[in-house]
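Help: read this over?
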Amino acid sequence: MSATTTTAGSAKKGAALPTPARLTWLHLKYQFLETVRVPIAVLGNLLFPALAMFFFVVPQKEVAGDPVAATTAVASLGLFAICSASLFTYGLGVAEDRQLPFDPFLRSLPAGPAPRMIARVLNGGIFSLFGLVPLILIGWLFTSAAVTWSQLLAGVGTVLLVSVPFVLLGMAVGYSLSAKAALPVVQVILFPLAFAGGLFLPPFLFPPWLDAISMATPTRAGRDLLVQALTGEPAYGLAWPVLIGWTVLFAALAVGAYRRDEGRRFR
């Protein structure tokens, strides 16, 4: 009887353990609610791309009146919104989280880092989609930008994939630096990547040497892939390898930064 009871109790305990998918969902829900409870944290990252679209694209009739050019502008500024949300929310946000008493408690739980980090990547995709909403509305109301439903779905899928390396880069910064140091570093990373990637100036205006550098950046690869999904204009041949390569590198940096921080704080 005792052995039977012990076995049943062990089975019951084993059945009660949450699965990795369940842990990831819990972290995803917690991180999402934590962010949206401070609306300015979401709205602030949406403001600059929407204003840039409204003041610099809409008044240019040769751009706003051309369906392909207008859609390309929406895609470029949309990618900037993704980069901004990913780097500020996860670069600065992770650095600030590390200063809170709740963060060491979470990291001491036996779940491991994977569910929490995967949840951050998924949340990055969600907030990337939020960042596109004002741009899509401005493009629809004030320009000739137009896509089919299939192009829109392809664009959404591409956005979710393209957001991953920038979320990982933000996490690498956040786990490496304090909040005070993370803010200027994020700014130094964001704007050069945006300019070099053709998010503010079309790449066909670049000189050859800058165009070659641009093609090696994750922003240019992401921009061209997003433009391809929305307009059908082919991206350059190495866009996917470049994006995947940077994703692997940023993932390694994020994991390495997490482990170094854990070693410093939990010896």
Q: What stands out?
A: The two ends are 45 Å apart (CA to CA). The chain has one domain: 19-262. The CA atoms of residues 94 and 100 lie 10 Å apart. Residues 1-12 have pLDDT under 50 and may be disordered.
